[in-house]
Amino acid sequence: MVTEGMRVGKYELGRTLGEGNSAKVKLATDIVSGQSFAVKIIDKSRTSRLNVPFQIKREIRTLKVLKHPNIVRLHEIFKGDPPVPRWLSPGAKTMIKRMLDPNPVTRMTVASIMANDWFKHEYSPSSCDNEDDEEDVSEEEKSHDSPTIINAFQLIAMSPFLDLSGLFETETVSERQIRFMSNRLATDVMEKIKTILMEMGFCVQKKHTMLKAIREESTRKGQGGLSLTAEVFKMIPSLNMIELRKSHGDSSLYKQLCERLLNEFDASSQR
Known about the structure:
Elements: E1 7-8, E2 11-19, E3 23-30, E4 36-42, H1 44-50, H2 53-65, H3 90-99, H4 110-115, H5 117-120, H6 134-145, E5 148-149, H7 152-157, H8 173-176, E6 177-182, H9 186-199, E7 203-207, E8 210-219, E9 222-236, E10 239-249, H10 251-264
Parallel strand pairs: 5-9
Antiparallel strand pairs: 1-2, 2-3, 3-4, 6-10, 7-8, 8-9, 9-10
């Protein structure tokens, strides 16, 4: 006999909502989340005598596919148990399992992650310091002025054969970017590119080893011009790679700029 106030698992049963020949529907409350549910209690002995298990299963299958605001939807929740890689450390395994806990009460929060010993190991939190420190700024600028060093894997990833953007864009890779080599110093390369861009009427912004250039130009068809970026990458101590990439704008103007840069650095394009 099911009485009001009885607890079944994590659900506390309340008043009766409805009653039929072989089942009773009661209002239930999740004692963890406080959410209300309708629990259907079936008398198995009565259903077996009436031979209606098939009808009950058919009812469940039907309610699963129906989607209407006036029809109660059935939710089946399955606990996931994703495998954790064996090569992870015990601390990392424990933290990942707690983060994937389906129970929101025992699931690991951001605060508990920050307090975890494994997470705190060799972790240095970022700090926003508004005080001016000229010495630190100068050291940071010196380190950022040196070009980005790329390894063999990054160089292979830059190959146009691995660029899938052509599947979504009308322009080919060779029409919007070029790469060439130079044995000049990175600072000299950036200054020369900046000079050429300014001579061609571009507004140039320099950030570390990257240049952003924009040239606005009005045409009969609308707003023209060109927007592009130039960046220097360090291959070996005596060799740099320069990448020029067009963001948008006039392709003919971009081609003129590419030809001028290649002539200036006596280089051939590696598209």
